[in-house]
Amino acid sequence: MDADMFEAAQRAREYFHELTVLPGAWTVIRLDGRGFSRFTEQRFDKPFDARFSDLMVTTAETVLTELGGRYAYTESDEISVLFDPSFDLFGRGVEKLVSISAGIATAAFTHAVGEPAHFDSRLWVGVGVPDVVDYFSWRQADAARCALNGWCYWTLRKAGQSRQQATAALEHASTADKNELLFRHDINFNDLPTWQRRGIGLWWETYQRPGHDPIRQIEVTATRRRITIDRDLPMKAAYRDLIQSRCGNTNPVPAEPS
Ligand SMILES: Nc1nc2c(ncn2[C@@H]2O[C@H](COP(=O)(O)OP(=O)(O)O)[C@@H](O)[C@H]2O)c(=O)[nH]1
Ligand SMILES: [Mg+2]
After folding, report:
1. pLDDT at residue 256 above 50?
2. In testing the pocket of ligand 1, which one of 36, 106, 192 has its CB within 8 Å of the most ligand atoms?
3. 38 lies in some domain
4. Is residue 106 part of a domain?
5. Domain contains 132
6. Ligand 1: which residue has its CA nearest to atom 16?
7. Torsion sign across C-alpha atoms 160, 78, 108, 225
């Protein structure tokens, strides 16, 4: 076998490398902390720790900056980053998208927390804005469900119940039962911080920054981009509207009403 054939035979065994996200699809990369139940157990307050949330926000900001996504959403130990159909990152190669995004998140979180922690990554694809709206509603509903469960579980644990007892007590409990359980412990779920119940959204905004042009000796304004962090997201229909508006920006900016 000559060298070229050998090279081609080896390349052919990079079997998944040709796999790409279909053109025209909306894409979400979802990153999830690996084994974070154990990782958070000794290091952070239960069920929620603002310090942990800040680490996740820092990680989400880094991914959004490095990959240039359109919207990012974080809840618990996960981050979703949205890309519009025109994105062409790494030729839309699946291996590159999942490995590099997991690498960026892993590096950013590890750097911020000061010890090694890992993220996995997966891709979601949707065919239109309604799919994207459903996707982010789904993750937000997951945030609410996990927050309610987490608060119930740790309230019982802190009241002296064992792991098994707390798990058993919640196994067949309805949402109403869980709210009542918290209420009996003087916790009103709806009064808990919004970021815990609804997650946190991040997106790019443009703003005008006044400055001085030293050559022309005049005052100028420059258009800059920065990331907005929303720890007070709306929910349900209002959140769906917010996601839709994040997606709508692919269209040309409509003319100002005359
Ligand atoms: N202590 C603490 N744990 C958190 C916080 N946010 C998320 N977690 C934990 O992160 C874990 C995430 O769940 P999951 O990804 O299914 O578990 P994993 O497979 O062990 O990473 C859960 O066990 C959460 O309790 C937080 O603010 N504080
Ligand atoms: Mg995890």
Report:
1. no
2. 36
3. yes
4. yes
5. yes
6. 37
7. negative
CATH code of the domain containing 144:
3.30.70.3000
Residue type at 128?
G
1 domain residue, yes or no: no
Helix 129-158 to helix 175-184 angle, to the nearest 10 degrees? 40
Query: Is 49 touching ligand 1 by the criterion CB < 6 Å?
Result: yes
pLDDT tens string 224-241 = 999 999 999 999 999 999
Whether residue 2 is predicted with pLDDT greater than 60 in this model: the reply is yes
Q: What residues are neighbours of ligand 2 (ion), with CB under 5 Å?
A: 32-33, 36, 77
Q: Give the pLDDT confidence score for residue 1 in this predicted structure.
A: 78
Over residues 61-97, the pLDDT tens digits come to 999 999 999 999 999 999 999 999 999 999 999 999 9
**Structural domain boundaries enclosing 128:** 18-197
- pLDDT tens-place string over residues 91-150: 999 999 999 999 999 999 999 999 999 999 999 999 999 999 999 999 999 999 999 999
